[in-house]
Specification:
The structure is a single chain. With 449 residues, the protein is an alpha/beta fold. The protein is built from 15 helices and 19 strands.
């Protein structure tokens, strides 16, 4: 049995605690925030999450799948809203597979409660990590004006994009990059009808794509939706920005021009916009993910990404599952080997899902309203139906399979090259289902293996 300190009691820290405690380790979780089960630490700045195949695989392995499934809403398609309020439904897969919307706060609370049921787990809130000894595993926390020292055999930094554990690791030989994208976000909630029924299809991810900015919404169990407006921090000639939508009058004009159909379903949308904080989006890449076989990073602390593939949490959960599998293979007393192999396996995949998430941002805000893109989706679905063993669309590789992110990224780029040629075929709009097109694609696949 090892003494484990987990710095950060968020989505990944909670699941990691369950995994390690069920292996018999003594686990202590420390979080700088208050207990989210007693205070709303996400108020006004939440983006709903989706649990996909990788997340369910990890949750199932930890024995908490059913506890989480009970708080989710299945989502089978994207529903785009154009400027005139016209809707277009685009399924995620040809076989009606779903991703599952879940409230970030509710999921965090559920996992912490599951962890606390285990007798060898301790949860400590309002504990800010101020130091980590990378050689001994001793951590120092500030709590109520006092300094708390905690000894451990292994320390995991699951404390998010601005990780205190990572900051300590950066004092040594460490490679690090931090990239803010130009877009920030604000939460916009869409309430349910008075009788609790939803005002939009709850089984769709609703997107208002406006090329250089967008709004989206995911359902909650109460019939409402958690929505998010993504827009540049600074305006350009192509798009408005948060810097020029500051007053009530500016916000009313902005929503009336760009999202008119959202106003009836969120009558207080302007008040929300003015009230809710503006938050930034950052991508973190770093190496190494572990030092001395004693201190390791996991989740956003190792690979924070933008939220446009809905895979940040799922990637963190896959980190936990991979770590657990390595402990099965190499033993619970061989942390140096386990952490070395964990970092080597997960680092390339962390980089790949960062690239994939940026790619999907362009798709969501712009391409989902492009007829050429929609035709590509039809062609890819047809190819998958005809040759499911040879063509799996990139989205399905990421959301509905165990294919490594790095391999999905590589295959997605190959698909791009092929589909660029296919869409350039004269008359493709009329003959996209033809045997000629299928044969041509299969030939290109064989030629580019």
């Amino acid at each position: 049995m090892s003494r484990i300190t987990i710095v950060g009691g968020g989505l990944v820290g909670g699941l990691l605690a369950v995994f390690l405690a069920k292996r018999g380790h003594a686990v202590k979780v420390f979080d700088r925030r208050g207990d989210p089960r007693r205070t709303d630490v996400y108020a006004g700045r939440s983006i709903n999450l989706v649990v996909s195949h990788r997340g369910w695989t990890a949750l199932r392995a930890a024995g908490v799948e059913e506890a989480v499934r009970a708080i989710t809403v299945p989502v089978y398609a994207r529903m785009t809203h154009d400027r005139d309020g016209r809707l277009n439904r685009v399924p995620y897969s040809i076989d009606n597979r779903a991703i599952f919307s879940v409230s970030r706060g509710e999921l965090n609370r559920r996992l912490l409660s599951e962890a606390e049921k285990l007798p060898n787990v301790e949860l400590h809130f309002d504990h800010k990590c101020v130091d980590v000894d990378l050689h001994t595993g001793e951590c120092v926390f500030e709590h109520g004006g006092e300094r708390v020292l905690e000894e451990a055999d292994v320390v995991f930094g699951s404390d998010g994009a601005f990780s205190a554990v990572r900051q300590k690791m950066m004092l040594g030989r460490f490679t690090y990059s931090q990239e803010y994208i130009e877009h920030d976000y604000k939460e916009i909630a869409f309430p349910a009808n008075a009788d609790g029924t939803p005002k939009m299809d709850p089984h769709c991810l609703h997107i208002w794509p406006r090329r250089f900015f967008m709004m989206m919404g995911l359902a909650n169990q109460d019939g409402g939706f958690t929505g998010t407006l993504f827009m540049p921090n600074t305006h350009t000639d192509q798009a408005p920005g948060f810097d020029v939508v500051r007053t009530g009058e500016q916000a009313r004009r902005f929503f009336g021009e760009h999202f008119p159909d959202a106003i009836p379903i969120a009558p207080d949308i302007v008040d929300q916009y003015l009230r809710n904080p503006q938050s930034s989006l950052v991508i973190i890449r770093c190496a190494p993910w572990q030092v001395n076989g004693r201190v390791a990073l996991i989740g956003d602390a190792a690979h924070a990404i933008v939220p446009f593939y809905g895979e940040g949490m799922n990637a963190g959960y896959e980190d936990c599952k991979v770590l657990n599998d390595l402990l099965n293979e190499y033993g619970d007393d061989n942390w140096a080997e386990v952490l070395t192999r964990y970092a080597a396996e997960r680092k390339p995949n962390g980089d790949a899902i960062a690239d994939l998430s940026l790619r999907n941002f362009v798709e969501m805000r712009d391409l989902v309203a492009d007829p050429k893109f929609l035709l590509r989706k039809k062609i890819e679905g047809h190819l998958q139906q005809r040759h499911p063993d040879k063509w799996l669309p990139l989205y399905s590789q990421v959301k509905f399979s165990d294919i490594a992110y790095k391999d999905a990224w590589k295959e997605g780029l190959r698909h791009d090259r092929i589909m660029e040629e296919v869409l350039a075929i004269p008359g493709i709009e009329e003959k996209w289902e033809s045997a000629e097109v299928v044969k041509r694609v299969m030939g290109m696949l064989e030629a580019t293996v």
